[in-house]
Design a protein that fits this description.
Distance between the termini: 29 Å
Largest sheet: none
Strand content: under 5%
Order of helices and strands: HHHH
Number of strands: 0
Helix content: over 70%
Length: 93
């Protein structure tokens, strides 16, 4: 748990914490931004078909990758601590 809290620490990672806390809202808001961006580009006549709005999902995907990294690190730390405790008990007992 400590690793999961250490990795996303710092003031510049506040959006990551918001995404974790309000995950569904973040994805819904991003999807609305995607639709609005694509619609605005098509209506402005810039393009006839747009997929540029999907770039809004890049920060969410990066944040998900960071969270997976934090979970993996936390899991490794728990396993290492458990193994150390068992090794200590085996030598003491």
């Amino acid at each position: 748990m400590a690793a999961a809290l250490e990795l996303p620490a710092g003031p510049w990672r506040a959006p990551l914490w918001l995404m974790v806390r309000y995950r569904v809202v973040a994805y819904v808001a991003t999807f609305v931004l995607v639709l609005a961006t694509n619609k605005a580009l098509v209506l402005s006549g810039t393009v006839s078909y747009s997929v540029w709005g999907w770039i809004w999902f890049a920060p969410l995907l990066l944040a998900d990758a960071k969270l997976k990294q934090a979970r993996r690190l936390a899991r490794q730390r728990v396993i290492a601590a458990t193994e150390a405790r068992h090794a200590e008990n085996a030598t003491a007992g």
